Amino acid sequence: MKAIQVSARVDQSIKESAQKVFERQGLDMATAIKMFITKTAYEQQIPLSVQETNRQAYPDNWFSDQRIANRDEITRLAFEKSPIQDLDLSKQEDREAFMQ
After folding, report:
1. How far apart are the first and last CA of the chain?
2. Which of 12, 32, 41, 67 is 20 to 30 A from 83 (CA-CA)?
3. Per-residue pLDDT reduced to its tens digit, 20-55
């Protein structure tokens, strides 16, 4: 397979910021770009979540103390009543039970 060179222009501060992320993952810029292009080619889709930017903001009272308390209580009750509390996911039979 003959390799070709691909180039793109990007703002220097964005490149440097991305480079730091790649380095934390043990990658260099070229490898990260090759991974992105290869995954796109194999999956025949862009491996990113592209979302509409025209989103509606949360209402002002969305994160009220009462709403947060209600959410926490629902979460507590769900875990308290959940049979998963009785499972040991290090055991094969419990993992199978969990997946059913």
Report:
1. 45
2. 67
3. 999 998 999 999 999 999 999 988 888 887 666 666
| DSSP-derived secondary structure letter, 98 | H
Average pLDDT over residues 75-83: 74
Rounded-to-integer distance, Cα 54 and Cα 80, Å = 39
Q: Mapped to the 3 state alphabet, what secondary structure does 36-71 carry?
A: HHHHHHHHCCCCCCCCCCCCCCCCCCCCCHHHHHHH
Encoded amino acid at 18, one letter: A
3-state secondary structure of 36: helix
Distance separating alpha carbons of residues 98 and 100, to the nearest angstrom = 6
Total Cβ atoms within 10 A of residue 87:
14
**Count of positions (residues) in the chain:** 100
